Amino acid sequence: MTPAEEQLELFERIVAGLELVYERLVAYKKQKNTELVIMRDDKIIRIKPDDL
């Protein structure tokens, strides 16, 4: 496997891990009925779990 292929595989695994973390975070926030806090356009936004 070339270094470029190894780097691509690592990148894909990292992205897959981040997607899994996001799904688990949303599920946790819905379970606990707490707001998800994000930053969009340099503003802090709170999203209710019902809106997810």
Please describe what this structure looks like.
This protein has one domain. It has one helix at 3-32; strands at 36-40, 43-47. It is of the alpha+beta class. 58% of the residues lie in helices and 19% in strands. The longest helix is centred in the middle third of the chain and has 30 residues, at 3-32. Strands 1-2 form a two-stranded antiparallel sheet. The protein is elongated and about 45 Å long.
Please outline the helices and strands.
Elements: H1 3-32, E1 36-40, E2 43-47
Antiparallel strand pairs: 1-2
Question: How many structural domains can be distinguished in the coordinates?
Answer: 1
Q: Which consecutive residue ranges, at least 5 long each, have pLDDT under 50?
A: none
Based on Cα principal axes, name the global outline: elongated
β content, as a range? 15-25%
Mean of the pLDDT scores?
A: 94
Note the main sheet.
Answer: 2 strands, antiparallel
Helix and strand composition category: alpha+beta
Supply Rg: 16 Å
Q: Please count the beta strands (DSSP E, at least 2 residues each).
A: 2
Structure annotation, total helices: 1
Cα(first) to Cα(last) distance is 40 Å
Order of helices and strands: HEE
Relative helix content? 55-70%
Strands of the biggest beta sheet: in what spatial order? 1-2
